[in-house]
Amino acid sequence: MKRNFIYAALLAPALLLAGCKESFIERPSLSGTTTGNYYNNADEVRAATSTLYSGLPWRNYESRAQDAIGDVLAGNMFTYTDTEYLNFTISSASERIGASWGAFYKIIGYANVMIKTFEEKKAAGGGAAYLDPAIAECRFIRGLVYFYIARTWGAAPIITDPGATALSGDFNIPRYFQKDVLRFALEDLQAAEKGLPESDVPGRVTKYAAKGLMAKLYLYQKDYANAKTKAEEVINAGKYTLVSDYNGMFTKASMNNNAESIFSIQHQFAQDPWGTGNIKNPDRGAGALRTSEADAWEMYVPSLDMLKEYEFGDLRRRWSVMEHGWTNPSWKPQRANAPKYNAFMANGFRYDTLQPVEEGGSLSPTRSNILKYFAGPGKSFGGEPVLGQNSGNNVVLLRYADILLIYAEAILAGQASTSDAKALDALNQVRKRAGLNPKTSITNDDILHERRVEFAFEGDYWYDIQRQGFAKAKAIIEKQNRGTVTGAVYLTNFTEDKMYLPIPAGEIVQAPALGKDPVPYYK
């Protein structure tokens, strides 16, 4: 995304958003501005919709909340910071809950305003040729976000016209049943599928992105027939493929919007250390790699349970994790007044758990660090361009490997096992890239295992656990070692009320209806 496009869209009169009484409602300014002299051509419209892809509105979700919810909660990551997610003692005052809730409803607010604005512009004679695809684009994003909301909180508010809500003065919006939130998300994706083009420039969504996300939503609902149909449509289109450089998808900006990426949050390297680019870098990298260019705080590290999940010979382990013996000869970080450290790193970085930290050793709580989304110690030290918190790597939310595994699971369709040739081919494509032998028969546990290692540290596994239902989710979680190398920890406190996160406490104070039982959205 061109930065001038993003700024132009944020400054466009119809998109000057102002907070109203509820933080989860975004509404257009009521100052009387109009769009009569704006959105008159495709460039202006596409500049506006580009904001929906930008890391700016997504930031408070993708920075830490995505990790805490998707991977710490799921047992893939260990942390000393978000221990309430590690231990399932989450309160409604959790910073990560509030951050993700605010980010999601802000994105929905942007999408709502644009949909309404573009529809009004079209009704006044604006060009349907460029307004209709833009509306479909907005509905894709809104559908995607409501899918996240439904899986994270279960029952939740549905907001489509924040301006009308603001004018009414009634901000006490209820929660709607999860099935209704999922239905609303699906209807948005169905509209997006109809209105989006077959192809577009890299990074922009197409009708195949809508089909792929619909397949994932159908699978979540256990609608295997429709999940299979939509996944098959994506596969048969031949527009995506698995890339050979698995690690590069997450660590090289040159691989942004590659042949495997279906939808990604768009980033670019920025000369600003305070979070204008991808800011996962400092939370994941080994502390031994901290330099003047790149922070590395080790906030999240692989869990011991995650490490034991990899099969012998699975290449995804070294593509995703740094642990003893892992090397990168091109990374040669230096530190002032640290002769032993600099000597240790002279021939490149070596992850070594036997050396003292001050001499270059890496002694995280699980003796490992996350490689995904860690771009390295900075360009001056042999890594990617990084400045403080920022790298230019996109954050991938849907990729082709997911479609292949959705397809395999949809064919299995809840059976004990399958040897269906198409299901095996889809799953074995993913395994082949990882250097593993093909399966000749697969079960649900085989697919769940494959999903866990394939999408480790991408914020997805909690939702895979959740959709198994409470009994199996409990069994999975209670078998996980959530401790460190100094002591194992197994949980016994997982109860059904922990399947979804609590509504942020501050929102319930302002809108008491959010604390009440959900109601139907569809009458």
Describe the overall structure:
By secondary structure, the protein is mainly alpha-helical. It is 44% helix and 7% strand. Strands 1-2 form a two-stranded antiparallel ribbon. A hairpin with a 6-residue loop joins β1 and β2. α10 crosses α17 (400-412), α11 (224-237) packs across α17 and α17 (400-412) packs antiparallel against α19 (444-454). It is globular, with a radius of gyration of 23 Å. The two termini are 40 Å apart. Mean pLDDT is 92; it is low at 1-22 and 27-33.
Can you give keywords for this protein?
about 45% helix; disordered N terminus; single chain; two-stranded antiparallel sheet; mainly alpha; about 525 residues; two-stranded antiparallel ribbon; 22 helices; 12 strands
Rounded to the nearest angstrom, the distance between the terminal CA atoms is 40 Å
Number of discrete helical segments: 22
Gross morphology: globular
Please, what is the average pLDDT? 92
Helix content: 40-55%
How much strand?
5-15%
Which residues sit in consecutive blocks of at least 5 with pLDDT less than 50?
A: 1-22, 27-33
Structural class: mainly alpha
User: Any idea what the radius of gyration is?
Assistant: 23 Å
Major sheet summary line: 2 strands, antiparallel
Which strand order does the major sheet show?
Answer: 1-2
